[in-house]
């Protein structure tokens, strides 16, 4: 049920959501809603009635293949967890999520970084590990001036572009478990600071 005193809703592992639950959530003005492990094939439409207050939405470990365009109306959203679904792309409407800081899409079916992400100007943490991403486009990522953490571990990236080191505020870059051979594993094992420095040295003058 919705915990009104904490302005959060914990509905994990539930498959039935009585209308009274949503009514209470709307009245309480909840800021966080968790719908993990609920066997969801789609985002409940009632979620969008909470767009005036909702800042954190947990939709991990469901059966989602896509997200509706209405996600772009969640203007207050700061954190979105979509881990362990079957999502291949994001709707273009989500480019309007100007407040989104934390996006976790680990363990989905992405083959590239969603184009929508490049318009999310507030994004600080972008977790895209354990997908099927085959390449990255640093020229687009460089525009994300708030990006501090980029996790691309366990994908199919064949080449790691040195220009990733030019993302202005990047501090954490996780890229182990991909198909590229350079930089070598011993460089990757030294941690993000060393990897970013190594890449920066390889940027063409």
Q: Helical region count?
A: 4
Strand order of the largest sheet: 1-2-3-4-5-6-7-8-9
Query: Mean pLDDT score, rounded?
Result: 92
SSE series = EEHEEEEEHEEHH
Biggest sheet details: 9 strands, mixed
Secondary structure: helix percent? 10-25%
Separation of the first and last Cα atoms:
58 Å
User: How many runs of DSSP E, i.e. beta strands?
Assistant: 9
Rg, rounded, reads 18 Å
List low-pLDDT spans: 1-6
Structural class: alpha/beta
Q: What percentage of amino acids are in beta strands?
A: 5-15%
What's the shape? elongated
Features:
nine-stranded mixed β-sheet, alpha/beta, 4 helices
Can you give a write-up of this model?
The protein is α/β, with parallel strands linked by helices and 205 residues long. The protein contains four helices and nine strands, in the order E-E-H-E-E-E-E-E-H-E-E-H-H. A nine-stranded mixed β-sheet has the order 1-2-3-4-5-6-7-8-9. Strand 1 and strand 2 form a beta hairpin. The longest helix has 11 residues, at 192-202. Residues 1-6 have low confidence and may be disordered.
What does this entry show, briefly?
It is built from 4 helices and 9 strands, in the order ββαβββββαββαα. It has 205 residues and is of the alpha/beta class.
């Amino acid at each position: 049920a919705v915990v009104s005193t904490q302005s959060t809703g914990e509905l994990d592992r539930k498959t039935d959501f009585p209308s009274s639950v949503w009514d209470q959530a709307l009245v309480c003005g909840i800021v966080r809603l968790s719908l993990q492990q609920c066997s969801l094939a789609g985002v409940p439409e009632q979620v969008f009635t909470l767009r005036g207050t909702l800042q954190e939405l947990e939709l991990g470990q469901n059966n989602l293949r896509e997200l509706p365009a209405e996600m772009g109306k969640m203007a207050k959203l700061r954190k979105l967890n979509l881990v362990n679904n079957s999502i291949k792309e994001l709707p273009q409407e989500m480019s309007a999520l100007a407040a989104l800081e934390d996006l976790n899409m680990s363990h989905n079916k992405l083959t590239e970084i969603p184009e929508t992400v490049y318009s999310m100007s507030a994004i600080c943490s972008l977790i895209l590990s354990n997908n099927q991403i085959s390449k990255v486009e640093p020229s687009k990522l460089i525009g994300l001036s708030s990006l501090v953490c980029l996790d691309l571990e366990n994908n199919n990236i064949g080449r790691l572009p040195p220009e990733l080191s030019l993302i202005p505020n990047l501090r954490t870059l996780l890229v182990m478990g991909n198909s590229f051979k350079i930089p070598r594993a011993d460089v990757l094992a030294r941690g993000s600071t060393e990897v970013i420095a190594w890449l920066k040295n390889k940027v063409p003058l």
